[in-house]
Amino acid sequence: MTAAFKPRRSVLYMPGANARALDKARSLPCDGVIFDLEDAVAADAKAAARANVVAAWQQGGYGHRELVVRVNGLDTPWGAEDIAAVAAQPLAAVLFPKVESSAQIDAIVQAMDAAGASAVPLWFMIETPLAVLDVRTLASYSDRLRVLVMGTSDLVKELRAQHTESRHNLAYALQHCVVVARALGVDLLDGVHLDFRNEAAFRAACQQAREMGFDGKSLIHPSQVEVANEVFGFDEAAIDHARRVLGAWEQAQAEGKGVAVLDGKLIENLHAAEAQRVLVFAAALAERSA
Predict the structure, then answer these.
(1) Average confidence (pLDDT) over 251-257
(2) pLDDT value of position 62
(3) pLDDT for residue 2
(4) Is the N or the C terminus of the chain less surrounded, counting Cβ atoms within 10 Å?
(5) Measuring CA to CA, which residue among 41, 64, 63, 39 is closest to residue 52?
(6) Is 161 within 8 Å of 187 (Cβ atoms)?
(7) β-pair partners for 148
(8) pLDDT band at residue 1 under the 50/70/90 scheme
(9) Residues β-bridged to residue 262
(10) Distance (Å, rounded) from C-alpha 223 to C-alpha 120?
(11) What secondary structure, in 3-state letters, does 85-101 show?
(12) Is the model more confident about 2 or about 179?
């Protein structure tokens, strides 16, 4: 059960044009790395960034980290070449920006298949009002989709809104995407926090996303990794509690009871299911460390 489970507490964007950053990612405790060929790379550096990313993958050394590449859109001069270049690499997924329609997804799947990457999973960025409105259709259109990634910076711009610490003006969009992700069984990553030097504000944003139901957060700076891992993970107390919940539930089931009692509180099947999820999460991290 743990073999297929991937913790995605902290997924760090690394600019493909910066070879030193790609090298540094090998030593960071993040769950995943997104090699970015899109927003973080200037137009005149696209080809060099693509070559850097391919070279980094070929060198290896990233260990447990889930390796994803964010390519340029197929409506740009670089998208098709990006896909062709990375298709043969040992990547975990390809992340596509500004996905808004089923027609786009058809073109993405066709391009991936033509490049020989028909088995490579897809991640989609949700970063426009249309994408938020149609996220259920987008998320259910291809069975190759594994993760939705919020592009909150672009979304704020497209909404003509403003960046606020509370993100109250994004609450509807964020929660709507959480509901869809949970209903369809895909993971969902929160958008980046641009003020990376403000740890208190970043921690608050992570806590808000965790409380909403996000699986983790996309990051722009290595200093954000440890906070994201902490907030979106489970400490030893939570893991121990999950073991006790599951033990009490299994004992009640063996005795033919429909509920259990632990520390004076009722335990039902929903609590047992959540405890099982916590333990699978903990086991996945333990296997990774081993």
Answers:
(1) 88
(2) 95
(3) 40
(4) C
(5) 41
(6) no
(7) 124, 188
(8) very low
(9) 265
(10) 30
(11) HHCCCCCCEEEECCCCC
(12) 179
Handedness of CA 17, 18, 24, 25 (dihedral sign): negative
Beta-carbon contacts of residue 95 (< 8 Å; ≥ 6 apart): 34, 68, 69, 70, 71, 122, 123, 124, 125, 147, 149
CB 142 within 8 A of CB 110: no
Q: How many residues does the chain have?
A: 290
HEC letters along 25-89: HHHCCCCEEEEECCCCCCHHHHHHHHHHHHHHHHHCCCCCCEEEEECCCCCCCCHHHHHHHHCCC
Backbone angles phi, psi at 265, to 5 degrees: -120, 145
Q: Which residue has tokens 């197929």?
A: 74
pLDDT one-digit tens code per residue, 155-214: 999 999 999 999 999 999 999 999 999 999 999 999 999 999 999 999 999 999 999 999
Tokens 């509807």 belong to which residue? 172
Cα Rg for the chain, rounded, in angstroms?
20
Q: CA 218, CA 221: separation in Å to the nearest integer?
A: 10
Between 62 and 288, name the one with better pLDDT.
62
- Give the pair of three-digit tokens for residue 37: 């060929």
The first and second tokens of residue 53, run together, are 């990313």
For 44-59, the pLDDT digits (tens) are: 999 999 999 999 999 9
pLDDT at 277: 93
Residue 217, classed as helix, strand or coil, is strand
Q: How close are the terminal C-alpha atoms of the chain, in Å?
A: 17
